[in-house]
Specification:
The complex is a heterodimer of chains A (about 475) and B (about 475). Chain A folds into two domains: about 5-220, PmbA/TldD superfamily (PmbA/TldD fold, 2-Layer Sandwich), CATH 3.30.2290; about 230-470, no CATH class. The longest helix of chain A is centred in the first third of the chain and has 18 residues, at about 70-90. Chain A contains ten helices and 22 strands. In chain A, helix 3 runs parallel beside helix 5. Chain A has helices spanning about 5-15, 70-90, 120-140, 200-205, 210-220, 240-250, 255-260, 330-335, 370-375, 425-430, and strands at about 20-35, 40-60, 60-65, 105-110, 145-160, 165-180, 185-195, 230-235, 290, 315-320, 320, 345, 355, 360, 375-390, 395-405, 410-415, 420-425, 430-435, 440-450, 455-460, 465-470. The radius of gyration of chain B is 23 Å and the shape is globular. Chain B has two domains: about 10-145 and about 165-190, 2-Layer Sandwich (PmbA/TldD fold), CATH 3.30.2290.10; about 240-480, no CATH class. Chain B has a six-stranded antiparallel sheet. Chain B has eleven helices and 19 strands. The chains are: A alpha+beta (about 475), B alpha+beta (about 475). At the A-B interface, strand 1, strand 2, strand 3, helix 2 and helix 3 of A face strand 1, strand 2, strand 3, helix 2 and helix 4 of B. Strand 3 of chain A pairs parallel with strand 2 of chain B.
Chain lengths: ~475, ~475
Amino acid sequence: MSHFDEAYSAVQAALDAGARYADARIMLRRTESMSARNGDVEDLNSDESAGLGVRALVGSSWGFYAVPDLSDSAARAAGRRAAQIAAASATVPGPPIDLVPAGAGAGSWTSECRIDPLAVPLADKGDLLVRATQAAKDAGADQAEAGYAIWDTRKWFVSSDGHRIDQHVRECGASVTASALGDGEVQRRGWGHQYGTRGWELVEELDLVGNAPRMAEEARALTTAPLCPSGETNLILAGDQLALQIHESVGHAIELDRILGWEAAFAGTSWLDLEKLGSLRYGSELMNITIDPTIPGALGSFGYDDEGTPAGKRDAVRDGIWVGVLAGRDSAAVAGLDYAGSVRSDGWARLPMVRMTNVGLEPGPHSLDEIIAATDDGIYMETNRSWSIDDRRLNFQFGCEIGYEIKNGKRGRMLRNPTYTGIGPRFWQSMDMLSAETVPYGIPNCGKGQPGQVGHTAHSAAPARFSNVRVGVHG
Amino acid sequence: MSIDIARTGAELELAARVIELVRAAAGPAAQAEVMVQHNAEALTRFANSAIHQNVAEATTSVRLRLHLDGRTAGGSTTLTSADGLRALVERTIAAVRVSPADAAWPGLTAPAPLHHSAGYHGSGAHSGLDFGFDEATARATPAERAALVGDFVRAAGGLETAGFCRTVYCSAAFANSAGQSAEGRTAEAAMDGIARLSGSDGVARRAAGRLGDLDGAVLGARAAAKARAGERPVELPPGRYEVVLEPEAVADVLSNLSFFGFNGKTFAQRQSFAELGAEQFDPSVTIVDDPLGSRGEPAAGLPFDVEGTPRESLVLVRDGVTKAVAHDRRSAAEVGAESTGHASGSSRTWGPMATHMRLEAAPAATEPVLPADPGGPTAESARPLVARMERGLLITDFWYTRVLDQKSLVITGLTRNGVWLVEDGEVTAAVSNMRFTQSYPQALGIGAVRGIGSETVLLPDSWSGVRYAAPALHLASWNLTGNASG
C-alpha cells in the first residue's frame, strides 16, 4: 500500500494556496513496549499512529500543519492550512530563505531486520523480561526493572522539488537495571540500554538474563564502595559513557540550527563560530568524528532524511579540526554551505528539524587494556547516570554508575558516585589514548525543539583516556 | 483560520463505542478503561527576531487498557474510524491473552463525580471561578499568536529575540466498564522568550488560561531589561552562596521535586526522599498540586486522569511537613493508599507525577513598597527578598538540571538568563553563568528558607499540559560548584 497520492495532494494544495515550496510526510507507526519489575510484567503497550504533516514555504516564511487523517480531502485541507500558517509567519519576517539541492527523485529504503520484533510472540518477550528481573532480584537487587521498546515506521515523502520516497525503518532495544538501597542513597547498574535499526536479534545479543546478576552484585557493592575522590586526574571513559559525551558536547554543538541561533531560547546555541569552520581545533589529533547515517544497524541510520536528501557520510572533526556540521536545506543555504542531509521529525505531527544521525568517533590505535596498563594514576568510569551541559555546549558535568581506581596500570577499588566535569574543547584536546573497540551506541531519547521532539541517534565510541580532568564533584 | 472545536460529547461517544467493542469481543468479564483525547496544539516560534517555525496539529488519540483473565495490556491509536477502533480492540485483546499474569492489577475506578463546577469543564469547585475553558484561546489563530510575537520583538527595542507563543486546546473523555465516565475541556496559552545583548540573555515567560491575558510587549520589555542589566558579567569563584531564586528557577525546583520526590512509584520503591508526616522542609514551605486552578487562576488540567480518577487539589507539603505523594491506582495499591488522580500514559514507567505544582506565596509584605524599577534586573516579585539579602546571588533561571542521586535529590545544573551579585540589598554586578550541585530538599530544609515572595506567577513548562505557580524564594545556601572557566 502506498500513500504517495495523499502526500502529493497535500503538496499541491499548499502550492495552490501560494507556497513556493512544499513537502509532505505520511507516516504509519506501530510501537510496542513492555516493562517488568521484580519478576512481574508491569506494563505492556501496543500503539498505532498514522497521519500526515505538510510543510509550506511562502516567501521566506514556513508553516506546518498535521492531521491524523489520510483521506485526500484532509490532505488538501492540511496543505492549505500550512500555507495559511506560513502567511501568518510573514508578519514577523526574517531574511530570505533558499534551499540547497536535495538530490530530488524517487527512492526507497528498508532497514536491516533479521527477526521482525513485532512478530516475536509477546509471551516470549515477557518471559525474557521476567527472567531478567528475577535474576537480578535473586542476585540481591532491591529493585529490578527491565524493558524493551520497538518502533516500526513506514513513511512516504513527496516534495514540490520532485521527491517521491518511501522508507520502512524497524528499531528496537532493551535494558535491565538493578537498584540497591544504600545509606540514604540509591545505587543503580544497568545493562543493555542499546538500541538500533535492527530486529529482535539485537535484543537477543544483549543477553539480559545472563548479565542481570552482575548488575545486581555491582549495585549492591556500590552501596559500600568508597566515594569517588575529588581532584584532577587521568580519566578513562568506557565506550558507553563516551557515546553520551560525544552526543552532548559534539553532536549538539555542530547542529547548524543552533549555530545560527534558531534554538537560542530553548535548546540553546553553540560555542562554534562558522567563520572558524575548517580551522578551529576541537580536540586532539586522535579525534576524528563523522556524521554517518549509513552505518548498518545503528539507531541514527536511514536511507533519506526527512527532506529527501540521500544518506551520506561526512566528516565533522578530522584530526582534531572542526570541518563539518549537521545541516538542513534551509540552514545550509543561510550558512553558505552546499550540503544538508540531517533533518528529521519524530513523527508525522512534528516539523522536521536538524537532528543528529550517527555522530561518532573513528577507531583509535589502542585497546582498553593498553590504556589501563599505560595509566599510573587515574579513574575509570562506566555507564551514564546523569548528564548536564550549558546552553552553548561548553560546560558539562556527567555522573556515571560505577568507577574504579586505576593505580600503576591496574584496575583497583570500586568507587561510588563517580562524576567528572569540564569544558568541551579543553576536554577533547586532552584525549591522549583512544581504543579501536568502537560500538555504535544508540540513544533513543534525544530531546529538542518546541513542541518537543524525541530523536533517535547513535554514537560510535570506544574507551578513551583524558588527562587532568576534574572528578568527584559532589553535592 | 482557527482550530476546529469538536462538538461536545464527541470524545465520550468514541470512548463508549470502544467499551462496547471490548464487551462484544471479550465478554462481560473484561475490565476495560478508555481515554479519548483531542489535542490541538499550535506554536509560533521565533528566533533572530523573526518567526522561523510556525506549527499546528490536531490529533485525536484513543487509549485502551484491558484486564482479562488476570492479565493486562494497553494500546492506543490515532485511527478513529470504525476499522481503526476495531483494530485497536482486536490488537489489545490479542496482546492480553498472551501477556504474563498481572498479580498487581489495581482494578478499575468506581463511578465517582468530578470535582468541578457545573457547566465549566476543567474549572475547580474550590476556585469559585466563573470561568474555566476559554474558547477564544482554543480558537486562537496563527495571526493572533504572530501579533503577540511581534509585540515581544518590538518591545525588546532592537535586541535580538527568540522564543515562542503557544496555544493548546484539549477535549477529552473517559469511560470504563465499571461505569465511570467523565469528560472535560481545557485551554492554555503560554509565551516564553529571551532578549540577547552581547552574550547576555534575559528571559520572560508566563502561562495563562487565556491568550488574552498574555502581553507580548510587557514580556519583551522585561526580557530586554534583564539582558541589558546582564552585560559585562564578572566571574565569581565556586562556593556556597546565599541566593534569591526568581520564579523561573523556582519552577525548576518544583519540577524536580515532583519528578523524583512526590512520585508514587519512586516512593513505593523507597527511592524518594519523601517521608509522610515528617518535617522535611522549612515551616514556611507549603506545596500543592492544583490541576483545577484556584485563587483567581483558570483551571490548567483536565478534572480526571487516564484511569478516570477525579482530580482535585493535593497538598504535598503543608507548613514544612510532607503530607502526600502523587499516586495512580497501581502505586497507590502498592503502599495501601488511594489514587490521587495522577495516572498518565507514562505513569507506569516513570511514575505518577504532579504537573500543576504551586509553592504557596508568603502573605503580602508589610514593609514599605519599593519604588518600581522596570528597567532593573530583578523581577518585581523578588525585589523585597533581594532587599533583605546582605551578600548573595540573584538567579533568574536554571538550565539542564539532572539528578545525581535520586534519594537525596542531589541535582546538578547551570544558571541561565541572568545572574547578579547582591550586596547590602542592592544588585552590584552581573555574574557569568555558574554550575551548581545541590540537594533540593536540603536547600528547602528547616531553617534554610529565609523568605518566600508574596506574589505567585504562572509559568509554562516546555511541554504543554504542565504548569507551575511560583513565587521568588530566598535561600540561605546554594552550592555553586563551577563557573565559566570550568
